Amino acid sequence: MSSCLRKSNHKEKRERPEQIAEGSKSDGENVDVSVLKPLISPAERIRFILGEEDDGPPPPQLFTELDELLEVDGQEMEWKETARWIKFEEKVEKGGERWSKPHVATLSLHSLMELKTFIEKGTIMLDLEAASLTQIVEMVTDSQIESGQLKPDLKEKVAYTLLRKHRHQTKKSNLRSLADIGKTVSSASRLFSSQENGSPTTTHRNLTSNSLSDFSDKPEKDQLKNKFMKKLPRDAEASNVLVGEVDFLETPFVAFVRLQQAVMLGALTEVPVPTRFLFILLGPKGKAKSYHEIGRAIATLMSDEVFHDIAYKAKDRQDLLAGIEEFLDEVIVLPPGEWDPDIRIEPPKSLPSSDKRKNMYTGLEAPQMNGDTPHDTGHGGGGGHEVGEELQRTGKFCGGLILDVKRKLPFFASDFYDALNIQSLSAILFIYLGTVTNAITFGGLLGDATENMQGVLESFLGTALTGAVFCLLAGQPLTILSSTGPVLVFERLLFSFSKDNGFDYLEFRLWIGLWAAMFCLALVATDASFLVQYFTRFTEEGFSALISFIFIYDAFKKMIKLAHYHPINTDYDPNLVTQYDCRCMPGNSSELFDLSALTNSTGLPVNATWASLTKEQCMKYGGQLVGQSCGYMPDITLMSFILFLGTYTCSMSLKKFKTSRFFPTQVRKLISDFAIILAILLFCGVDALVGVETPKLLVPSEFKPTSPLRGWFVPPFGGNPWWVYLAAALPALVVTILIFMDQQITAVIVNRKEHKLKKGAGYHLDLFWVAILIVICSFMGLPWYVAATVISIAHIDSLKMETQTSAPGEQPKFLGVREQRVTGIFVFILTGLSVFMAPILKFIPMPVLYGVFLYMGVASLNGVQFMDRLQLLLMPAKHQPDLIYLRHVPQRRIHLFTFIQALCLAFLWVLKSTVAAIIFPVMVLALVAVRKGMDYLFSQHDLSYLDDVIPEKDKKKKEDEKKKKNKKKGSIDSEIEFSDYPYHANNIPSIKISMDMMEQEPMLGDKSLDSEY
User: Where is the composition biased (Basic and acidic residues) (predicted)?
Assistant: First the structure.
């Protein structure tokens, strides 16, 4: 048996409407639309159906259930649920105790053709008004009797059969008492054969008492408690398919019913949702398999998004047939000898959008995306940011800032209540630990560079103050402020310069900060952030990849430094184990030192000797350690690497746990949301259990300046000559470029289209608050802070939202990011309170936090096209993925583009690792110039695919849609095959078509129609 799968390139049936006009009558009568309707091609009909303007909500999601009429215990008949659909098919396994995995429904072509025949000849009742299944059955049987399809004497038998009990998969057993079995009739035929001699009244009374007692008009407990409801949206409706064989029918009884309003039909459906559609098929004995396949065919059709819409909007039988024709045009047949129909096809990870199929008929064009076509490069920049309202240059004083405030103010309240989700808690804990670790690391390096004029405590206070204010008032609260490498290099150079020239470092720094803030405010007032539109993917990915590599490099660098501090004894020889010892001996200055003289004053034992002292006591009292094992600390380095790599691996694994097969959906989601926190807690527990003295997180426990030579306020005058205050403007220019580039490139990355942010950006407002915070930090002697790329990306990743009611087998769809201010505010409040949480934080091993650093660096590289292109260098062509730029750009050009980008990245890396790192932001700005120069090396066609800010998956979907539309447009022709209609060649009716109608509804082949596509 052949089986059918989805296909995208079958041709439409050709029709010839112009022949109708040629045979028009001469009496001038206008066309009767009801006569013309059967002559409209399926493609045109679908275009009319889907193209109708409808101001109401879209049709709801359908839950489709297939029930089959089966014998129970060899006696009575009842309806048994055998399969269900939302998007994919789930079957009741042969054992009857469980559902199968969701899989793609594979249909026989013969069943689809039989279904089409049944729809052509069966009863079609659209917008039926009924409140119960009994009424529906009554109206359907009456309709069939009126049309001569059903004998009147079979009405009650059909009704009795359709009103039998429905047993769903939620009911695991079918135990009935002997009394119940005795009261029921084994089958409909046996019931009526025993009543042949009875009066009609008696027959009707027995029918009513038996059928209505079996079918429940109210939802049962199993329905109300069914957890499957979580997979359905709130407005979901049901489509019930009833198929079975009976021995009292000679021809099939077929009906397709659409109710005017969805109605709860009691226990008819597995889940308590109202029913909108019913498909009924009862036929003679001997074709149970065929009926089953036809039932699967209509159920699969109802789960198809295009036919689903057609079924809701259909006006008559021909509309439904057109929907089936469209479905048949989209399937592909597999030869039976080359594929096993019993193999269940796993649902794909990504599904093609049904919108492209619908748009082929509605004529709607998707919005143009920048860089999508080769000729869409009029700016010469190839893939720059689309100029939205956030980046428009107003030409007014503070015009952009005012628009940012107006744009963000309506969302200010929602920025707080949108955070009411458990996911926010996991984001707070994750980003807090990353921020604390960064603050401690940066504070320690800054203390070394400035002789503790700025240290760890200043780093904590500055992080807490600036971060909390920024997240509360800035335009994009998802951005996380932190210290950066170029700022550290600038501080080191500035301190050395001040020390060599006798300047007051903090006062000089204050005036540089004031000048830099003034320059930043000038950039805000003049809408200078519009320059962001020239940051293309080339610049963004170069910058973000560099910062990610730095995070990864620093994580390993810290672990190697730890290994040097706690070395491994590589010369260990088990044969010399008796010689490995370490003893405390008197030092050169304490050989004659009387240790017993200190026993009373220090608490040492009376009989204490140098050999009995601990390492700490030995060093305290001037002793020295002697022995071959004194320089080594067993297990610390190895244990630290176990914690480091274990935290990273566990974080990556738990983050992907959402797509695993274990535990219910909500549990998997919860584990994924708290992945990093769980990994940290797990390996903190491992460290405590093993008991090795690994390095721990040390947090200042006193709230006071690191250096006693300074306070919490820096006086602006008195420490330096007056001309220094003016000269500070020169280094302030460097700081301004540094701040502007770091802040705005990170903001561009945060506001990427693929993040689906709905509340808008605030480039001008962000820079405004960064400038204000620089002033505050300068007066308080705190470090300067700017947007941190990697931590901001990690913040966004921890707040990503997905659909809650995805169908079984369907991958959850990314909805966007939980845009709010609460997580950032709480992160920085906790950072400020860390001074008081030192007794708790001291139990966290530093290797665990280094593992978190490694995770953030690697995770932020996900989705970076530059990394994908690097992998292509090592990948044979036949194994390369289906990427949009591989379809259109020669591979050697792709590799050349990647090589240039990697060369720029290497140059920036070398620059950042030297004293010249202070000009790093200027070199990042130079990437824009390099990108501009690439216009002379690459064609605009190539750049539109390699350097576009539009996400890869969106571009590929857009192209597939355009290809499909072009094929469909080419296949829709102006010919009608009249052999499809019940007219002889010499007896074709002539119909007068008015010009008004031709203008309102252009027929196929009309050139005006082509312009719509």
Answer: 12-28
Asked whether residue 485 is assigned to any structural domain, the reply reads yes
Q: At what angle do helices 636-655 and 846-859 cross, to 10 degrees?
A: 40
Residue 920: CB partners within 8 Å, gap ≥ 6?
485, 486, 489, 738, 908, 911, 912
**Pair 298, 433 in one domain:** no
Give this prediction's pTM: 0.65
Classify residue 675 by burial, with Cβ atoms within 10 Å: 0-12, 13-18, 19+: buried
CB atoms within 10 A of CB 452: 19
Say yes or no: 710 and 842 in one domain.
Answer: yes
137, 247: one domain:
yes
CA distances from 138 to 144, 261, 821 (A): 10, 18, 59
C-alpha dist (Å) from residue 370 to 521, 536, 944? 31, 11, 8
Range of the domain at 276: 62-304
Integer Cα distance of 801 and 810 in angstroms: 16
pLDDT of res. 141: 92
Which pairing describes strands 62-72 and 237-245: parallel, antiparallel, or unpaired? Answer: parallel
**940: which residues sit within 8 A by CB, 6+ positions away?**
374, 375, 377, 380, 382
> For position 589, what pLDDT does the model report?
53
Distance of alpha carbon 572 from alpha carbon 567, whole angstroms: 12
In a domain, 310, yes or no: no
Q: Who contacts 505 (Cβ-Cβ below 8 Å, separation ≥6)?
A: 450, 453, 494, 495, 498, 499
Q: Are 3 and 333 in contact (CB under 8 A)?
A: yes
In angstroms, the Cα distances linking 666 to 581, 673, 785, 813 are 55, 10, 38, 15
Specify the amino acid at residue 776: I
Q: Are residues 414 and 546 in the same domain?
A: yes
Cα separation, 930 vs 942, in Å, equals 16
Residue type, 64: T
Give dist(CA 755, CA 27) in Å, integer: 63
Number of domains into which the chain is organized: 2
Among 354, 432, 480, 392, residue whose Cα is nearest residue 747: 480
Q: Say how many residues make up the chain.
A: 1013
Place of tokens 């001309």: 723
E strand intervals along 176-230 = none
Residues 291 and 438 in one domain: no
243 and 99 in a single domain? The answer is yes
Same domain, residue pair 727 and 834: yes
Residue pair 733/776 in contact (Cβ under 8 Å)? The answer is no
Tell me which of 916, 946, 976 is where a domain ends: 946
Domain end: 928, 946, 964, which one?
946
Cβ neighbour number for residue 966 with a 10 Å cutoff = 12
> Under 8 Å CB-to-CB from 240, ≥6 apart: which residues?
64, 65, 67, 265, 268, 269, 275, 277, 278, 279
Beta bridge partners of 444: none
Let me know if residue 851 belongs to a domain: yes
Q: What is the mean pLDDT of each run of 10 residues along the chain (1013 residues)?
A: 43 35 35 48 75 71 90 78 88 80 87 92 91 91 90 90 82 40 39 40 38 53 67 86 91 92 87 91 90 92 89 89 88 80 78 61 44 36 51 77 86 87 85 80 74 81 90 88 77 80 84 90 85 77 80 86 79 63 67 49 58 66 67 76 91 83 78 81 88 78 76 80 84 84 83 83 88 90 86 85 71 82 90 79 82 83 81 79 78 86 85 69 76 82 70 53 55 40 41 38 35 34
Q: What are phi and psi of 86, to 5 degrees?
A: -120, -60
CA distance 326 to 48: 13
Same domain, yes or no: 130 and 236:
yes
Cα 467 to Cα 215: distance, rounded to the nearest angstrom: 64
Please give the biggest Cα pair distance in the chain: 136
Q: Detail the DSSP E strand segments found in 136-215.
A: 166-167
Q: 628 lies in a domain?
A: no
| CB neighbourhood size of 620 (10 A) | 11
Q: What is the CATH number of the domain that holds 114?
A: 3.40.930.10
